[in-house]
């Protein structure tokens, strides 16, 4: 269970508590969480707006309670944390998506020359469209050669190849919406004419096209590096070499005060924290005892107190992390994680592989042998066994 003491108030104390709590996570995600904590605190260490600083400090305390609950045995929060660490959700997913949509650099001089030629053609087309617009009096907006947008910088062939592979892959419990295999063409979803039967303006067509690609990139699960993918596979199979990556370190016992406290809460011993009876006079009991309820014990770390009407029983949702739990968790994340490699010699073709465990039936042990006595390999009972 997490430590049960008042939450830290100073930003430096919150920062240290977060780093300490991150050290109890599985080693495979400790580095990412610690780097994320350091980055966020250093970016806003000189915040000039007091209101914004209070909001960020409150968010940091919320994240501290989240990490404590995950380490204490909250399965749902631990899964959310692992999804963020492996780039299925959160900031790391956005980084992987940016890497996915970025065009590949030219491999040789021929590809570089082809890229320069395409850029020149676009510049000439934009210039011609501007001259045509000036002569006809029609504004450039909605015509060819408009301002370049984000879609011009995307490698849409890679995104479409990944989306097609994801639509036919057997992915369960995905944090992203499903992709329908029958809707893989942006032009097919864009109408050819407007409500008056006139041809759709180019500006409107481009806007709908960008909206379609935004919806598609919102659904895809971006690929990772091959080394990380192999590590996930080893964790999913429960290999001995990967045990050090998922085995959580043991928590250091909480320090106890050596001073004797006499004014304590009812039902607690003399070594417990001092009972501040004044707050019970000014605040409702239900709000003061809320942190001791079974639902919030994982977040607050409050120990069970017999005097509280909300503290009947252990925390709700606590789970003891076992090797089987970790194998199943990493297997679920692995099957929604692909690797994407360009096929050698194939123009615009990609080799996409998704993680998948082979279904292996366990062998029967000697203790179950008596149930199969007198039965052949086809499951039929022998004649002698029938007579008996």
Automatic annotation (TrEMBL):
InterPro entries registered for this protein in UniProt: Cup1-like_N
Signal peptide positions (record): none
Region (Disordered): 123-145, 243-267
Domain called LYR motif-containing protein Cup1-like N-terminal: residue spans: 14-96
Pfam families according to UniProt: LYRM2-like (PF20263)
Protein name (database record): LYR motif-containing protein Cup1-like N-terminal domain-containing protein
Source organism: Pleurostoma richardsiae
